[in-house]
């Protein structure tokens, strides 16, 4: 098949399940990859949510015996690991993929092949982690996997953690690099950095954080792997190692990770609130600087997770002040969002309800964050339920509310149909109230002496009431998630079709093209003349954004199965390493051979991909014109 | 409309009062909100101070937020109205940058000062009885307390004199643990291969609950201990009694228990003045508050414990039914009788 003859006509979907599956396995279209990420995140969200419910069932009454000891530690570890790495991260990437190229007026991402590879690495990494339940037990060292507990004292479960995260982390790093390059290089003419929508800005800073944070995780995980499989002594005190090294490495990654998750959600809020207030984002420039500053400070504060390690008052004080400083740019954002609504017209759509609810919830999480930044007080908070409450206010109150806002906001853009608003609003109230009922009492539980990762508490410890309330709240959140699933199924069956400017108040470029966007995104690359280009063009009375070029043939990349196969070979290698360590007494040679085989297969895939000339294909001008005509009717 | 607002405003002080009545809640001897010593009090003071500043922030933001939502909500018939597109406001933006900075600076001074003061665990030379040094070693899943100045060792219950500075030199024998007595002081991690110091002081005699705060394995949630604060004179007496040790068992069953203990348990446990680092030293077992740090201190629980420790404390290293696993119920009962004679109190 020559590159030019291969046109859109030959790309028409073939019939049957296998053909459908093949399309998804080989796709390099960022919009489809976005959907894949969304499905992956959804799947793991269900798993992580069930784990959360198990935790709350065990803790609902004192001296409960439902999940005891290691079983509880497994559930806690998997809940944390799953929610951070396999729910929040892919959900972020879902929106990055679905929205960023459209917001900057690009036809694609910079590296479509690598984009697909990133997804499959994430997805198979998640599977590696989750099959541990069926192959001898899940990891139980906490999502932080502190050494030497996780390297010397726990069973093979920790290997699933190490390799699952290693594989998924490689995918995330690729995704970060991809979006960094995409945003720098592929902006439409006229879209200067200061005209970039705030979601794209946060995507940009997040990608930069990924670029610097994930290699730390990679290195740390390799060290843990070598300690476990090959008997290295990085974290073994008896042989001159030191477990605190792992804590530093983990949090040098782990702290920025929080902002990797939070910043895009700030971005989502910065899109949703202006749209549904019919107003420009207040203080766009200061928002950009606040975002960059938060990104910078994210790397300066990791020791605040380690105030109780014994690093001494000098180190603790320096990192305390650096941590407090983050409150300033975050505060700027909060006030700017409020003043975006000020003088506007606040529409209470489901998306906006989530975005609005984000503000007070995140403020509560933020103020407890400043309280935690005080080392002497943190000696009391650290590793208690106060911390649990704090980071759930930040990660659920900040990230998940943001993601839900984004989900309802961009669903029509991604799928061409609206989610049901009534059901959405009922779900919203269940989620918001359930959330606060769950996590607000946990502040007090912590102050009353309940440490985190405790599978039980004693009947006389006065902790029963708070825990019971907390468990009831969790049930409310579970109902909300079930309602969302029902909503999604209903929408797929008979949702209302969405127009290009689905909410009628779209401001940024993604709303200027049909919903869902055509394969090539923009028939003509738009010419960007201001912040909120589409809004400005509409105000000027134009129906379309001024194009920067005439219609022409559009170059597209070919799909490829190689990303999937590469990820699969790394999965094979991972299982080799897992089983090589399983006995804990020595390396299993056969399993090690499987590991080497897996790596060999991956190298082979790389070779094939390098040697094969693939110039992609063109969608011809006539076809573009025809599709654009159809799109206008949509 | 305005009156409604005023009513709402009146609720704010009420809410603040409600929150303050919650402060001070929690089980006595366990809660950080009911501090029982100067270190915990300093920390609680900082908590309160930061809490007050944060309340101001929450109230201001909450007010602006609620006002914006109500005042600028979409009203019917506004479909075609386009609000003014405001770019920003330099003055406002500078204002909400500078005000938080001021608030943080106000908070930063006590933060640094108190962080240094509660971390000062130096031990003066020739400290005599004014400072008590305890070497704390965390094990999966129990606590060992050595008193180098007195040459005694105990476990699970940390005896301290009231009013004195107690310097704790914390380390771990295996994985990372964290030493936490909420009512007396914040926590300090127990890191294998290194020793870090903290200090605490108890105002009055009493039992204060201690917890392991860093995930350390299956029974992390059961790695409890007790801090037993006694008057300085009682403490001095206790150190002497510990040195002297318990008197020999009197009853026949306890004597049988003693010989069984020597056969089956002495490989790990010690009852000597200093002793074993692999399992708790049981010299003053009968004087302790709990079995294994958290269980009720009675004979039937002790028998259950000896029979099958891991059913009560998952992952505990003590083998079931003694080291050989072949003790009869009678033998276990004898051992329990013996252990309950291990009291140093009777010397008083």
Could you characterize what this model shows?
The complex is a heterodimer of chains A (634) and B (348). Chain A is mostly helical and 634 residues long. Chain A is built from 20 helices and two strands. Chain A has helices at 17-26, 30-59, 70-103, 112-131, 149-153, 157-185, 198-229, 243-277, 284-297, 313-325, 327-341, 350-372, 375-381, 385-415, 421-447, 464-494, 533-539, 562-580, 589-611, 621-633; strands at residues 554-556, 617-619. A two-stranded antiparallel sheet of chain A has the order 1-2. In chain A, helix 2 packs antiparallel against helix 16 and helix 14 (385-415) runs antiparallel to helix 15. Mean pLDDT of chain A is 94; it is low at 1-10. In chain B, strands 3-2-1-5-8 form a five-stranded mixed beta sheet. In chain B, helix 5 (252-264) crosses helix 8 (329-339). Chain B is α+β, with helices and mostly antiparallel strands. Chain B is 39% helix and 18% strand. Chain B is built from eight helices and ten strands. In chain B, strand 2 (142-147) and strand 3 form a beta hairpin. The interface between A and B is large, with 93 and 92 residues.
Q: What is the secondary structure topology, with strand pairs?
A:
The complex is a heterodimer of chains A (634) and B (348).
Chain A: H1 17-26, H2 30-59, H3 70-103, H4 112-131, H5 149-153, H6 157-185, H7 198-229, H8 243-277, H9 284-297, H10 313-325, H11 327-341, H12 350-372, H13 375-381, H14 385-415, H15 421-447, H16 464-494, H17 533-539, E1 554-556, H18 562-580, H19 589-611, E2 617-619, H20 621-633
Antiparallel strand pairs in A: 1-2
Helix pairs in contact in A: 2-3, 2-4, 2-16, 3-4, 3-6, 3-8, 3-14, 4-6, 4-18, 6-7, 6-18, 7-8, 7-9, 8-11, 8-12, 8-14, 9-11, 11-12, 12-14, 12-15, 14-15, 15-16, 18-19
Chain B: H1 2-22, H2 38-71, H3 90-118, E1 131-139, E2 142-147, E3 152-155, E4 157-161, E5 165-172, E6 177-181, E7 185-190, E8 196-200, E9 206-212, E10 225-230, H4 232-244, H5 252-264, H6 299-307, H7 309-312, H8 329-339
Parallel strand pairs in B: 1-5, 4-10
Antiparallel strand pairs in B: 1-2, 2-3, 5-8, 6-7, 6-9, 9-10
Helix pairs in contact in B: 2-3, 5-8, 6-8
């Amino acid at each position: 098949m020559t590159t030019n003859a291969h046109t859109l006509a030959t790309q028409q979907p073939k019939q049957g399940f296998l053909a459908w599956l093949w399309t998804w396995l080989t796709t390099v279209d960022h919009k489809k990859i976005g959907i894949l990420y969304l499905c992956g995140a959804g799947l793991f969200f269900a798993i992580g949510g069930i784990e959360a419910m198990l935790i709350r069932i065990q803790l609902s009454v004192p001296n409960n015996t439902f999940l005891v000891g290691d079983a509880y530690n497994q559930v806690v570890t998997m809940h944390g690991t799953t929610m951070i790495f396999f729910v929040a991260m892919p959900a972020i990437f879902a929106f990055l993929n679905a929205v960023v190229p459209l917001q900057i007026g690009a036809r694609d991402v910079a590296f479509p092949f690598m984009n697909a590879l990133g997804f499959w690495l994430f997805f198979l990494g998640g599977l590696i982690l989750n099959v541990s339940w069926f192959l001898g037990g899940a990891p139980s060292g906490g999502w932080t996997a502190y050494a030497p507990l996780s390297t010397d004292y726990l069973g093979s479960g920790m290997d699933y953690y190490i390799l699952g995260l290693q594989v998924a982390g490689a995918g995330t790093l690729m995704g970060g690099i991809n979006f960094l390059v995409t945003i720098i290089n592929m902006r439409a003419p006229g879209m200067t950095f200061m005209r970039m929508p705030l979601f794209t800005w946060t995507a940009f800073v997040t990608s930069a954080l990924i670029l610097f944070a994930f290699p730390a995780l990679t290195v740390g995980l390799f060290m843990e792997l070598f300690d476990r499989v090959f008997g290295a002594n990085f974290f073994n005190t008896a042989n001159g190692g030191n477990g605190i090294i792992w804590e530093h490495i983990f949090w040098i990654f782990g702290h920025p990770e929080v902002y990797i998750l939070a910043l895009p959600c700030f971005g989502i809020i910065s899109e949703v609130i202006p749209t549904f207030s019919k107003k420009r984002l207040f203080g766009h420039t200061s928002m950009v600087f606040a975002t960059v500053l938060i990104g910078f400070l994210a790397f300066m504060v990791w020791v605040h997770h380690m105030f109780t390690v014994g690093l001494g008052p000098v180190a603790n004080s320096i990192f305390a002040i650096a941590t407090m400083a983050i409150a300033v740019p975050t505060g700027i954002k909060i006030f700017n969002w409020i003043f975006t609504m000020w003088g506007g017209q606040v529409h209470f759509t489901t998306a906006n309800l989530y975005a609005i609810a984000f503000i007070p919830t995140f403020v509560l999480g933020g103020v407890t964050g400043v309280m935690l930044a005080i080392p002497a007080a943190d000696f009391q908070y650290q590793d208690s339920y106060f911390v649990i409450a704090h980071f759930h206010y930040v990660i659920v109150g900040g990230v998940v509310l943001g993601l839900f806002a984004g989900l309802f906001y961009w669903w029509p853009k991604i799928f061409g149909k609206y989610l049901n608003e009534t059901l959405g609003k009922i779900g919203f109230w269940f989620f918001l109230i359930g959330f606060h009922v769950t996590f607000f009492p946990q502040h007090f539980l912590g102050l009353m002496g309940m440490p985190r990762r405790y599978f039980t508490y004693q009947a006389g410890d006065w902790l029963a009431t708070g825990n019971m309330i907390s468990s009831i709240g969790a049930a409310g959140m579970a109902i909300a998630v079930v309602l969302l699933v029902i909503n999604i199924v209903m929408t797929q069956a008979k949702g209302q079709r969405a127009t290009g400017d689905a909410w009628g108040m779209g401001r940024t470029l993604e709303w200027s093209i049909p919903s869902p966007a055509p394969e090539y995104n923009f028939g003509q690359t738009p010419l960007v003349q201001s912040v909120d280009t589409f809004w400005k063009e509409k105000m000027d009375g134009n129906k379309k954004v001024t194009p920067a070029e005439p219609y022409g043939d559009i170059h597209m990349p070919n799909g490829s199965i190689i990303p999937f196969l590469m990820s699969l070979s790394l999965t094979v290698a991972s299982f080799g390493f897992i089983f090589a360590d399983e006995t804990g007494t020595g390396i299993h040679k056969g399993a090690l051979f499987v590991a080497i085989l897996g790596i060999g297969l991956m190298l082979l895939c790389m070779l094939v991909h390098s040697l094969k000339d693939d110039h992609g294909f063109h969608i011809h001008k006539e076809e573009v014109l025809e599709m654009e005509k159809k799109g206008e009717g949509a | 409309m305005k009156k409604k607002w005023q009513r709402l405003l009146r609720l704010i002080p009420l809410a603040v009062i409600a929150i303050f009545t919650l402060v001070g809640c929690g089980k006595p001897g366990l809660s950080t909100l009911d501090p029982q010593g100067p270190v915990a009090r300093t920390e609680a003071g900082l908590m309160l101070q930061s809490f007050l500043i944060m309340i101001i922030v929450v109230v201001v933001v909450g007010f602006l937020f609620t006002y914006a939502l109500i005042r600028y909500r979409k009203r019917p018939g506004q479909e075609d109205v386009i609000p003014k597109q405001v770019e920003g406001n330099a003055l406002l933006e500078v204002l909400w940058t500078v005000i938080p900075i001021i608030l943080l600076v106000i908070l930063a001074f006590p933060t640094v000062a108190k962080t240094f003061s509660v971390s000062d665990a130096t031990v003066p030379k020739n400290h005599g009885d004014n400072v008590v040094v305890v070497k704390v070693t965390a094990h999966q899943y129990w606590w060992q307390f050595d008193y180098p100045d007195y040459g005694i060792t105990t476990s699970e219950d940390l005896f301290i004199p009231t009013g004195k500075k107690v310097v704790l030199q914390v380390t771990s024998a295996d994985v990372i643990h964290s030493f936490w007595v909420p009512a007396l002081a914040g926590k300090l991690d127990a890191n294998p291969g290194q020793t870090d110091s903290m200090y605490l002081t108890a105002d009055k005699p009493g039992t204060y609950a201690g917890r392991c705060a860093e995930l350390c394995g299956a029974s992390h949630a059961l790695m409890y201990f007790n801090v037993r604060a006694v008057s300085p004179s009682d403490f001095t007496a206790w150190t002497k009694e510990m040195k002297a040790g318990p008197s020999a068992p009197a009853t026949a069953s306890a004597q049988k228990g003693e010989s069984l203990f020597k056969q089956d348990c002495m490989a790990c446990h010690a009852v000597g003045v200093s002793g074993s680092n692999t399992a708790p030293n049981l010299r003053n077992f009968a004087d302790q508050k709990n079995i294994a740090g958290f269980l009720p201190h009675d004979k039937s629980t002790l028998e259950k414990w000896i029979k099958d420790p891991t059913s009560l404390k998952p992952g505990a290293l003590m083998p079931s039914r003694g080291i050989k696993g072949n003790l009869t119920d009678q033998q276990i009962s004898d051992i329990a009788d013996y252990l309950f004679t291990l009291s140093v109190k009777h010397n008083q």
